[in-house]
């Protein structure tokens, strides 16, 4: 199981704003199992460029971007001849780190959000706190083992990697459902809507950090992760996926 201890050749750029004035994060992570690049603009329009080699997973990441109004690029390749576990979990890790970087000090954000999303037979809830305290509560059982070529069990692995590296508390619950495709998609859409709401800048805060402690960074990006981050230039010189 890939995790923070296995971060290798990771490049992270924490940029408060990109050239369009958007909150922005970029990650390049390369291990012996996967290579993943993520670009995320929080203040986007829902544009997505996704390529992971798993069609249904691509579809879910597009939903995350579209309904979260994020501009998202994910280019990933991995040991799919084994199964999709490493690639899906590592994509969650990279997306979480990009989200954390894009948020910066978390100044002025709304911080909390809950979203309920129906999709035909399925009803999903996502409730989150951009707290700096990584935690995932996952209450979902799927009637079919797969949606397309995607293993339903990997939904939890993706969101665990995302929540831990984004530094958020995330509760996910499936209230009802019969079709695994609908159930997974409802979860991704619920997370997208909650992330959009929680990361939105609240003008009434006047740029203040929404915490009585004055910080929301206590556990976002742990020391083990930080110790394995190298410069983007070094990672690029090591070679890897083309980046458009």
Summarize the SSE layout with pairings.
Layout: E1 10-15, E2 24-30, E3 34-41, E4 48-51, H1 55-68, E5 71-78, H2 85-103, E6 112-119, E7 122-129, E8 135-139, E9 146-147, E10 150-151, H3 154-166, E11 169-176, H4 180-199, H5 223-227, E12 229-230, H6 232-237
Parallel strand pairs: 1-12, 4-5, 8-11
Antiparallel strand pairs: 1-2, 2-3, 3-5, 6-7, 7-11, 9-10
Q: How large is the share of residues in beta strands?
A: 25-35%
Number of helices: 6
- How far is the N terminus from the C terminus? 30 Å
Helix content: 25-40%
For the largest sheet, list the strands in their spatial order.
Answer: 4-5-3-2-1-12
Structural class: alpha/beta
- What is the 3D shape? globular
* CATH superfamily caption: Imidazole glycerol phosphate dehydratase, domain 1
Poorly predicted runs: 1-9, 221-244
Major sheet description: 6 strands, mixed
CATH class: Alpha Beta
> On the 0-100 scale, what is the average pLDDT?
85
**What pattern of helices and strands is seen along the backbone?**
EEEEHEHEEEEEHEHHEH
In the CATH classification, which architecture applies? 2-Layer Sandwich
CATH topology descriptor: Ribosomal Protein S5, domain 2
